Amino acid sequence: MSKVIKNGTIVTHDRTYKADVLVENGVIAEIGPDLKGDETLDASGCYVMPGGIDPHTHLEMPFMGTYSTDDFDSGTRAALAGGTTMVVDFALPSPGQGLLDALKMWDNKSTRAHCDYSFHMAVTWWSEQVFNEMETVVKERGINTFKHFMAYKGALMVQDDEMYASFQRIGELGGIAMVHAENGDVVADLQQKLLAEGNTGPEAHAYSRPPQVEGEAANRAIMIADMAGVPLYIVHVSCEEAHEAIRRARQQGKRVWGEPLIQHLTLDDSEYMNKDWDHAARRVMSPPFRNQKHQDSLWAGLQAGSLSVVATDHCAFTTEQKRYGVGDFTKIPNGTGGLEDRMPMLWTHGVETGRLTPEEFVAVTSTNVAKVLNCYPRKGAILPGADADIVVWDPEKTKTIHADTQVSAIDYNVFEGKEVKGLPRFTLTRGHVAVHDGELRSQEGHGEFVKRTPNTATNKALSRWKELTAPRPVERSGIPASGV
Amino acid sequence: MSKVIKNGTIVTHDRTYKADVLVENGVIAEIGPDLKGDETLDASGCYVMPGGIDPHTHLEMPFMGTYSTDDFDSGTRAALAGGTTMVVDFALPSPGQGLLDALKMWDNKSTRAHCDYSFHMAVTWWSEQVFNEMETVVKERGINTFKHFMAYKGALMVQDDEMYASFQRIGELGGIAMVHAENGDVVADLQQKLLAEGNTGPEAHAYSRPPQVEGEAANRAIMIADMAGVPLYIVHVSCEEAHEAIRRARQQGKRVWGEPLIQHLTLDDSEYMNKDWDHAARRVMSPPFRNQKHQDSLWAGLQAGSLSVVATDHCAFTTEQKRYGVGDFTKIPNGTGGLEDRMPMLWTHGVETGRLTPEEFVAVTSTNVAKVLNCYPRKGAILPGADADIVVWDPEKTKTIHADTQVSAIDYNVFEGKEVKGLPRFTLTRGHVAVHDGELRSQEGHGEFVKRTPNTATNKALSRWKELTAPRPVERSGIPASGV
Amino acid sequence: MSKVIKNGTIVTHDRTYKADVLVENGVIAEIGPDLKGDETLDASGCYVMPGGIDPHTHLEMPFMGTYSTDDFDSGTRAALAGGTTMVVDFALPSPGQGLLDALKMWDNKSTRAHCDYSFHMAVTWWSEQVFNEMETVVKERGINTFKHFMAYKGALMVQDDEMYASFQRIGELGGIAMVHAENGDVVADLQQKLLAEGNTGPEAHAYSRPPQVEGEAANRAIMIADMAGVPLYIVHVSCEEAHEAIRRARQQGKRVWGEPLIQHLTLDDSEYMNKDWDHAARRVMSPPFRNQKHQDSLWAGLQAGSLSVVATDHCAFTTEQKRYGVGDFTKIPNGTGGLEDRMPMLWTHGVETGRLTPEEFVAVTSTNVAKVLNCYPRKGAILPGADADIVVWDPEKTKTIHADTQVSAIDYNVFEGKEVKGLPRFTLTRGHVAVHDGELRSQEGHGEFVKRTPNTATNKALSRWKELTAPRPVERSGIPASGV
Amino acid sequence: MSKVIKNGTIVTHDRTYKADVLVENGVIAEIGPDLKGDETLDASGCYVMPGGIDPHTHLEMPFMGTYSTDDFDSGTRAALAGGTTMVVDFALPSPGQGLLDALKMWDNKSTRAHCDYSFHMAVTWWSEQVFNEMETVVKERGINTFKHFMAYKGALMVQDDEMYASFQRIGELGGIAMVHAENGDVVADLQQKLLAEGNTGPEAHAYSRPPQVEGEAANRAIMIADMAGVPLYIVHVSCEEAHEAIRRARQQGKRVWGEPLIQHLTLDDSEYMNKDWDHAARRVMSPPFRNQKHQDSLWAGLQAGSLSVVATDHCAFTTEQKRYGVGDFTKIPNGTGGLEDRMPMLWTHGVETGRLTPEEFVAVTSTNVAKVLNCYPRKGAILPGADADIVVWDPEKTKTIHADTQVSAIDYNVFEGKEVKGLPRFTLTRGHVAVHDGELRSQEGHGEFVKRTPNTATNKALSRWKELTAPRPVERSGIPASGV
Ligand SMILES: [Zn+2]
Ligand SMILES: [Zn+2]
Ligand SMILES: [Zn+2]
Ligand SMILES: [Zn+2]
Ligand SMILES: [Zn+2]
Ligand SMILES: [Zn+2]
Ligand SMILES: [Zn+2]
Ligand SMILES: [Zn+2]
After folding, report:
1. Quick one: which of C101, C230, C90 has its CA closest to C169?
2. Which of D253, D355, D458 is the closest to C253 by Cβ?
3. Position C484 confidence tier, pLDDT thresholds 50, 70, 90
4. Contacts of D438 (CB under 8 A, 6+ apart)
5. Record keywords: Hydrolase included (chains A, B, C, D) (predicted)?
6. Is C51-376+395-416 a domain of CATH 3.20.20.140?
7. Candidates D301, D358, D461; nearest CB to C357
8. Separation of CA D203 and ligand 7 centre (Å)
């Protein structure tokens, strides 16, 4: 059954124009004036945009014998409710576990997804098995992005030499390296010091992960990626220090992308000073929220293009789970929600204020993600042949964010009480109208895995440059050739 | 008569894919597999890209009672020969001359154009007449860009207060401010000093316009544009100093674009040290060529996105004209050619080396220009409905640049002897095949003026932000209200 | 009558040690253990430091037919009360007035000084007379510093070409250029715009002089000084933008010094939002107070050495005088006090917090000033033969700053209510004990003019470098020498 | 027997003046006009300056079963010949060896010293023993500086967590942390990769240690020092990347010093491209020489004050020793000479060119070293009571550097053939005239160990600031305190 989106204004990352959109068999069949279909979606007064893509989620992530509360069911429903039509989750092997083995677990969990999804593969330890399986992950499983944790010492963290080896392997495979950038050694020591000094509350979580440790790690990852000749994607850039390292790298021609989160763009570290322990603990994530100076830096980065995409790191734990850390902040599960609110919050604080144009909004919430991760223009585009992942955005629609009316499965919302202006009227996932005039009509299991191939144009260009500038031996006849 | 471009790989600023292109009535009618038309252009092994747009030319520019040698005839033929399908020239009023009066002169000259063109309007003096005519220029003549010269003291140069007034006016009209950024006071003094010291040769031209004077002026223009709340486009960014000012501005959320020239990207200041006076004098332009450090900065800027487009400032004077300045470098007419070689030189030194991807090449030579100047996607796009300004680019085709085989009317070429790899097989201007398998078949007078409207999304966003953050009076009851 | 300062710890810009100081005939006669003199000043528990030097004051400055209220009498008494033993004031010619003529007026006013003083000469207009008199000012009057106003359009402001000419002249004379850095054209326009929009209160003074206009002017002055080959001293650096320009210049080997004021280090722009008009108007100075970000930048500059000295720009107007500007902020006389409080405020917020060491405190309040202005070690030193300008500093002494107990002649204090820790026990001016255990015993007319000679080592080094790197003509035989 | 240095011009880090200097019992007894002594040294036409202090040498350093060739005998003779009167060497424990044990070895070697010396203590592994002995090293042995190697994996290198633990310990003891900053993991991998690719020559040494790995490590050490609250001294800063990290840190108020070497200031990486293997191998040191861009950065750093001292890292291996690495660059012993030439080379390229003033020369070669390392003003000063470590510098004396006329024991000189202008006429070490009119008359065993105490003013200030800004727990009543 075909559908036509009528009377809207199409906004993509590079143009804005009035046209109807005809959707057939889950893809965009035609774009133009006066189109007709079996069903009509009225987009009067609305922008018709590529559905959001969240490049960074953790749905049903294992943690201390339990799981993050939003799974591929509630998580992708929340996504759709907020105009996001694709998520990219992280397959996380336990230390010693094979990559393919871990992927199977994520395959299982993701069968419930209401929208399309893809995976990043995490490299949490290093061995010949990991080295070998990386090839299969890229070539057979359609995953070209590998994440490394520079923090979480004793758990997910890898050492510099492991990271360098992995980055070189990624380079050979034409993939993209990713890092969670915080100096795990220093964080671990700071945690112990803070606990020893009686700093046990959630605010100490922020104290233990200051901007300096993030900036340092970002800078280090950039150097290692440069030496390995591989493009680098730095997740959850929260501070000026990390952003500065990225800017500096880009100004040397390095291929580095930075991903700020909607939380860091709109919330600050005063949240951790809240007298209510629950309030503070619910905001515990890594990196923590920062102050105004850092927020300004992130916004400017989106404007200038030195930061590329906006994500959520959605990893939702209930208050009950958060309370594991009463008396010891290091036991508070790390993570906050955001999937449902990323698009409205960014529109409200970005487009409504004039910091971003609507086209830039589309770029950072969708198109840039699809381009960097290599699923454009199947995703992130309003083009004939593209998947019909579309959000019909009503810029006049408003609401106040409340936990008790949200789709996400957790019992609170870090944006509680915030007014937003700009919300989905319709959200389509591969043609299915998952949000209809604000009403959620999504289908469990509708989502499919999106393969992403390696060897992007960026990989090729970088490799060419590295070859051109590679070390060459000096030719000498007779060595050594001289006396004094 | 329809034409179909077959078997090529389409490359736009955001995607690369195999498809044929059907051209009818001067526009792109269809894109897809297996298209048919009356005439077939074989693009096997080629990239099908938006024709280049040169945002900065001076064709038949009046100078000392004569004119720059390439006019809208030879200049646009040279453009097409090199894959460029649109030029934007500068209408330059003499001091005291009205804007509309000057435009008439440019209208007359441009009737001979072989490809489409548009104009920037220069503000070379300030008065109520200028203020008033600016509105007509924008609303009736379809020009939204206004250029200001911060150098050429006693001729085109405007003072800070004039520039600030003009920028505010542009802001009201929804236009974009442009500047030639060099501190004209200091240049004028340096010129006199150098002449007095016996530095009369063309190398003294470079000495008289060091990077510092360009960086200073760029920085000043940025501040004034910020105060006026208007987007700013800085032409011919040649050095790290100006680039640094632009980067710094962008990192504060300012809307500033920088335009490096192909000459500054690929030639350096050692040219002025040539023992052959003619060799050096032919390279005299403002700003002059710079050293390797500055070139590296410009390339990195294109890679990082802190610089946006590549132009030529094509303003071609013959050797005979250059020799006006024998014995006094200040009399050497300023300007070099480049229109014919911009695309091949940038492909060779950018794409072939891996510094730029093919998509980035399209962006900086065409699409970004069209977007910033607001004629996208009529220009700069391979999309149904877009003008059929297309270059079929053969990445394996090579040549050595020689003045005696060039299309441009001047008697030398600043790129003489350079090998290029990557050249047009076909160039189409609104559907007309102006270059056919390397053979020039362009038509005098085929070119049309391209109107460009004001109030871009960037203008609107910037204005909104400026309103939000505008000064507000403090409310006081009783003034003054206190004793000590 | 000799005096000995006993039992104190001497702190200079480069060392800290216990020793007594013997003073005879106004100079330091001896430093060592167990010294004896006719009179003993007990420095137990105190630091014995070079008296402060304020490089930037405006005592009895003419303004709108009246004068700034603190003159060389009350001003220098206030200085001594706060531990400052020398001030450097600005001789300001009216437009058209000769330099020597203006100096005579300042000679007359300064006869009342209680402590030593020197003058900077202002260049407020340009002519052959000014050019010629500059030599006399340097060679006969012992003044090697020339100040230029880039703001105050229509009054003191000079144009770029005038400034460049003056800077070159200063270079020839071996002097040092100084600037008040704000873009006067933009300020003037902003003032008119703000008034027109009903922004008439003192907060509009801050709106009219944002950090951008200061940063721009600083950057411009630096470039012009670089072209002229002259060292540059930028007064009242209030913001990150100007500081950034200075840092950038210094990192290119340029000889530039920046002078933050104690007001900008410790007060912020929220003062202008005060509901009390008088409160806000009393803080009106140029540049205005800035926010925390800028304060942090200034403190770090003092720590890093990118900023060199701390001054006051003391220019004190009474509340009555400030009220000239009721209804029109542009008529509020610009200037605040600070002479009396500079040293205690800097000690409290610098040394007590650990941002500065005591030696760094001495450097930025005294020794660096003497070195840059070329009166070291006659001033700014605790060395045998140096003038006995000494402050015996009690780091445990505290007070709360109140206008009603101050020495300054004005009726308020911008630091009103601030607690300070660290105050003079004794202040000696050329051996005379002007402050005795907190009691003021200064003598009108005791102060003498301090000559400062040109051609410092910095001048010589800079000139040598400029010669080495000066433009050289290319030698050519036969010009032009070639055909195509 | 007293000596008087007559008719010279004294130049210290802060002043220049004519005076005689009387030396008695190894210290400066008096400074003034017309002094008399038993022996007269004629300083006519000369500058009388504090003897140079080289903060970074490796005399008789153990390496692969042999030792670096210059020992405390030949090394300190070379030092004196070039005007350097004190060296600070590194006591290097083998992994597992105690600190005090290692110090004993250095005590033994240094008995032959001809000039005074001190030691830095290296922390090359981590244990409770090391932790405990650090206190003894500081309190009993008079060493307040602890060096850490971030490179030399498998040998001297320490991990981040060890470094952080050590830095915290240093902070408690009031000491100063030092690092050799290169990322050892990446260097080790690059070495293997280069060898595997057939890059076996000395140029591959440079390829294996690019500026990026140095900049990264410098940045990391700065962050760790900041977290530990300890001042940091970065040895042999060779490149813009490391310098940039230092500048950035200093601009955040961090207490970081950078030490460029005379080699990096005056020699570049083209040396490694020399066709003569010996020529290249003799220049092998870590970090390697860099290109012009980096040199410019280092010079500007000295001018701006962002870099503090100039050293040599003197570690001299003979050609024979260098040849251990024929066929495998990783086996070439790392190190070059410089002790003898540091002062003349810096004078020639710094003062003679106008980049540095004579006072700045004294600061970076002597006084700053003494201040940072805490032996000022016993060393680094021309003051009564200071050790008579004095160089009488003849600015007109010239020579061409040749290995066959040098004092150093090695068989070549990296500055071979360089002309220098500015050489010692006399060098005094604690009053002994070790160089007399160019003739070396030094005494083996004359040199004494210089104790350096902890808890400098910088330590105290930093600690105070860290206390003030330390994390504070939020006070909460009832945890958790809320529902949703
Ligand atoms: Zn993470
Ligand atoms: Zn995550
Ligand atoms: Zn121009
Ligand atoms: Zn132009
Ligand atoms: Zn001023
Ligand atoms: Zn002033
Ligand atoms: Zn080392
Ligand atoms: Zn070393």
Report:
1. C230
2. D355
3. very low
4. D397, D423, D424, D425
5. yes
6. yes
7. D461
8. 18
